[in-house]
Design goal:
This protein is α/β, with parallel strands linked by helices. The chain contains 6 helices and 9 strands. About 30% of the residues lie in helices and about 20% in strands. Helix 2 runs antiparallel to helix 4.
Amino acid sequence: MKTDATPGDARTIPGVLLAGGLARRMGGGDKPMRAIGGRTILDRVIARLQPQCDGLVLNANGDPARFATFGLPVIADGVADFPGPLAGILAALDWAAANRPDVQLVLSAAADCPFLPRDLVSRLHGALVAEKAELAVAASGGQTHPVIGLWSVALREQLRHALVVEDVRKIDRWTARYRLATVTWPIAPLDPFFNANTIDDIAEAERLAALDGG
């Protein structure tokens, strides 16, 4: 079932930072809490998105107290057993429906991407409106980044069904069901969607932070 919900105003869109991953390639722990250039990755993500979003929430599982210093609401997955980022997106849509009934769209972004574009929300929203799409995702370097996108609150029950009943885990398998806008960013001087998955990535992020102005 499609939705004809209007896309609303880009200035009213809240954002969710997805930090629910287990960071196995870093030996466990919270990837966004790793430091780059003296600041945590999560600090950098918040700094990029706060000016673009009408409020931020953090999706993370486990003890929320470990994120207390960031001053953001922390919401856990409502679907058990770490089914991936779609569960975090669903948690954000449920949060928006309960706490921000005026909101029609929610931005999602990976909490381990320290160099997110400063025009992320405006460009995604502009493409969604122009293409009469229901969802919008980011891309760079010939690769889509489906965890970074705009999601319609009106689709939350369809997403819940896909997760719980159909066991859909891959984001692009679910987004393929809807009108999808894809927005591409350049990768020079750096890929704005670089994410720190491994210890080596942290070293590379230090180099990129210097290119990005620290």
